[in-house]
């Protein structure tokens, strides 16, 4: 459904009396100027006074800032009140890798909350803009990506986004609930690559001011650096602004979501659309997720926790959230889950009485892993946790080859033929896990070898099906404390 008309002539549709009761989430003109000079500065939070999607997510910390200034923001609050026609919001994701990571997840959750409130959303893959690279928050240019590689990455991102929205619909949304908004998956290569340079500069270039673009801190820092700044990067905000204009024209898109470091680009989109169409659009930022040292999580920082299984397993994702300290876990429950404030309060109250159980961390990890990897992914993460940290042989026996290789990524994976009379010593030597001669023999007799979490001190013990070799045809061999070997046995005898 198209977005509602934004202006009646030039009059605002919110009365002064009603305005006084609305939350103040705005980015004022002063804040806008400050962002141009200090884009990472945090706004002073002002508690909202009204309920609704915008106010609720502001209170939970997911929505950080809203742009433009107060009058337009108050109309946005009115648009998002329950019972109003749906509006359309979008967020863009550049495919600089073939997977999203945890740093992207809050933007996706922002879209999901719009969808849960009955609004329509667009997940935009930047198949064209990724070839240029966003300069926001960067000290040097991104490594150039070939068009073929960008297309491959774009497919991976699209599949990851589709999986998140599908898992949400199937696992977090009751079928008999109110309307769940629609979702579209688009790629800006579909329109930017067919746009001629002359027509693009003629339409966009005449409306974006050089002074504004040059005044932004990210631009100023790069221009004064030894490496400087290329024209392609400098024009990135113009291309992102054009995306917003295109989506506004063709899909009635009213709102752009982005990380806190995207506010400058969102402002460029607002400037372009208001000048070209005379209509108002809006921007909402979500917080940046940082490591315990304060570094932004992401590919560029080298600390990304990926959402695709081939990069970060469900177990590794689960453990990332289980290891969150008490200082952040309540905030993360509000940011990363759909749990109600009442339920989160209850979880934290129990945690205060039983902190040793890590209840909030486990619930946080379970909710996020289920959203990212589905029920089977969550079951896999819990199974790997029991096998590794609780020496649970039953969990180990039920693990697949893939799970074992994910759990022990650095462990050699060895296929062996089981011969009659194979001993513990034979296994260790065939796996090249111990030294030849007396030293390797002593490693076993002194307790340095375990098979399936059971210590073996008799080198001559014959391997037994069901004990040393699990029913899934695997053995987990450990030498010392850290050296693991995954053994896949071939041509096992089958019981009649």
UniProtKB/TrEMBL annotation:
GO terms for molecular function: ATP binding; RNA binding; tyrosine-tRNA ligase activity. It is found in: Mitochondrion matrix. InterPro entries: aa-tRNA-synth_I_CS, aa-tRNA-synth_Ic, Rossmann-like_a/b/a_fold, S4_RNA-bd_sf, Tyr-tRNA-ligase, Tyr-tRNA-ligase_bac-type. Pfam families: tRNA-synt_1b (PF00579). Its main location: mitochondrion. Catalyzes the attachment of tyrosine to tRNA(Tyr) in a two-step reaction: tyrosine is first activated by ATP to form Tyr-AMP and then transferred to the acceptor end of tRNA(Tyr). Belongs to the class-I aminoacyl-tRNA synthetase family. This is Tyrosine--tRNA ligase.
């Amino acid at each position: 459904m198209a977005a509602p008309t934004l202006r009646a002539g030039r009059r605002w549709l919110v009365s002064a009396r009603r305005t006084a009761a609305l939350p103040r989430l705005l980015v004022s003109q002063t804040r806008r100027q400050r962002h141009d000079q200090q884009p990472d500065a945090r706004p002073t939070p002002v508690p909202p006074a009204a309920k609704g999607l915008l106010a609720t997510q502001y209170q939970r910390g997911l929505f950080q800032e809203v742009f433009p200034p107060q009058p337009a923001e108050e109309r946005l609050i009115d648009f998002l009140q329950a019972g109003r026609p749906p509006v359309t919001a979008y967020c863009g994701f550049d495919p600089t890798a073939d997977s999203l990571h945890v740093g992207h997840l809050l933007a996706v959750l922002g879209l999901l909350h719009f969808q849960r409130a009955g609004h329509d959303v667009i997940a935009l893959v930047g198949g064209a803009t990724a070839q240029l690279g966003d300069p926001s928050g960067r000290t040097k240019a991104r490594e150039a990506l070939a068009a073929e590689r960008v297309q491959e990455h774009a497919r991976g991102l699209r599949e990851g986004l589709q999986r998140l929205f599908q898992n949400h619909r199937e696992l977090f949304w009751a079928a008999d609930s109110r309307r769940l908004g629609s979702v579209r998956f688009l790629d800006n290569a579909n329109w930017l690559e067919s746009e001629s340079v002359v027509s693009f500069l003629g339409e966009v270039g005449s409306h974006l001011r050089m002074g504004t673009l040059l005044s932004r801190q990210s631009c100023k820092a790069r221009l004064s650096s030894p490496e400087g700044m290329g024209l392609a990067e400098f024009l990135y905000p113009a291309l992102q602004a054009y995306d917003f204009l295109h989506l506004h024209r063709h899909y009635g898109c009213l709102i752009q979501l982005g990380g806190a470091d995207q506010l400058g680009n969102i402002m460029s989109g607002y400037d372009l659309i208001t000048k070209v169409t005379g209509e108002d659009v809006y921007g909402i930022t979500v917080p940046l997720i940082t490591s315990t040292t304060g570094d932004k999580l992401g590919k560029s920082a080298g600390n990304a926790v990926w959402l695709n299984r081939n990069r970060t397993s469900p177990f590794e994702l689960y453990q990332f959230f289980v290891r969150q300290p008490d200082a952040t876990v309540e905030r993360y429950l509000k940011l990363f889950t759909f749990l109600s404030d009442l339920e989160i309060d209850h979880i934290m109250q129990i945690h205060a009485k039983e902190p040793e159980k890590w209840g909030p961390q486990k619930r946080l990890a379970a909710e996020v892993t289920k959203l990212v990897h589905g029920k089977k992914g969550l079951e896999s993460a819990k199974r790997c946790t029991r096998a590794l940290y609780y020496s649970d042989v039953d969990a180990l026996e039920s693990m697949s080859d893939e799970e074992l290789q994910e759990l022990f990524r650095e462990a050699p994976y060895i296929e062996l033929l089981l011969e009659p009379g194979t001993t513990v010593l034979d296994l260790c030597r065939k796996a090249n896990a111990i030294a030849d001669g007396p030293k390797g023999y002593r490693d076993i007799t002194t307790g340095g070898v375990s098979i399936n979490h059971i210590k073996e001190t008799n080198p001559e013990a014959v391997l037994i099906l069901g004990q040393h070799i699990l029913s899934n045809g695997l053995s987990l061999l450990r030498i010392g404390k850290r050296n693991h070997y995954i053994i896949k046995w071939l041509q096992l005898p089958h019981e009649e």
